[in-house]
Specification:
Structural class: alpha+beta
Number of strands: 11
Shape: globular
Largest sheet: 6 strands, antiparallel
Strand content: 25-35%
Radius of gyration: 17 Å
Strand order of the largest sheet: 9-6-8-7-10-11
């Protein structure tokens, strides 16, 4: 391990595994501190929910939004929990669902950053994405009965102060972006390793910028609010 050249508070690893868990080899080096925070969040989520859903998606800023909203990701995370609570209460669900999360802000060839996000939810409350929202759907609010994907789009619209229907296309749901983890299944260890390996993408050092006025990484800490690190 060695210090990150752009941020001496962080260290880098070029290894193929971290804490005995596999990483996506082609994306090395990784930020060690981010790898630990992702592992901490996944372990906490699995302890909280024996049947866990993990969902992977990206958040982009609309091209016609001249200045990205300050603190957009923090606004999104807080609003997402509210959208989930309203949705489950509206359905009369007997399950609660505190949302765990990890996110990374990156800038590649784009003129502005975007966010890679992983959320951790109660699989008894959400089994999959539900229906996907349509861009320019002709209504000011996607119906709350549509599931997790609609909760995500509504939360991102709130964070940007935009109509959710107008910005639905800026939320990119990863192909095969839903994973399940069950503490009572024989495949728990291998499933845990696979989810961690896929989630490790958020900890890669490439395309992250420091000293630019925005945070590069954030995560849920023990399912009690938002904790962030630069």
């Amino acid at each position: 391990m060695k210090s990150h050249p752009q941020n001496r508070n962080l260290t880098l690893t070029y290894a193929s595994h971290w804490r005995g868990l596999p990483l996506l080899a082609k994306h090395t080096p990784y930020v060690c501190e981010y790898l630990d925070r992702i592992l901490e969040t996944l372990e906490g989520a699995s302890r909280t929910f024996p049947r866990l859903l993990v969902a992977r998606f990206d958040l982009h800023f609309p091209l016609d939004l001249e200045v990205p909203r300050a603190h957009a990701i923090s606004r999104f995370i807080k609003r997402l929990q509210r959208e989930v609570d309203v949705y489950l209460n509206g359905r009369g669900s007997r399950y609660h669902c505190d949302i765990g999360h990890a996110w990374a802000a990156e800038r590649d060839l784009s003129s502005r950053q975007h966010y890679h996000v992983v959320i951790f939810a109660n699989k008894d409350a959400f089994h999959t994405w539900g229906r996907f929202p349509r861009e320019n759907c002709g209504t000011t609010s996607p119906t709350p009965e549509q599931g997790l994907a609609h909760c995500i789009v509504r939360a991102w619209g709130h964070a940007l102060l935009q109509d959710p229907c107008a910005i639905a296309g800026t939320v990119h749901f990863a192909e095969k972006g839903i994973y399940w983890l069950n503490r009572n299944k024989a495949s728990y260890t291998s499933d845990f390793e696979d989810i961690y390996r896929r989630s490790s993408y958020l900890a890669k050092a490439e395309t992250k910028e420091y000293g630019c006025g925005y945070r590069c990484f954030g995560y849920a800490h023990k399912f009690s609010g938002i904790r962030v690190t630069d």
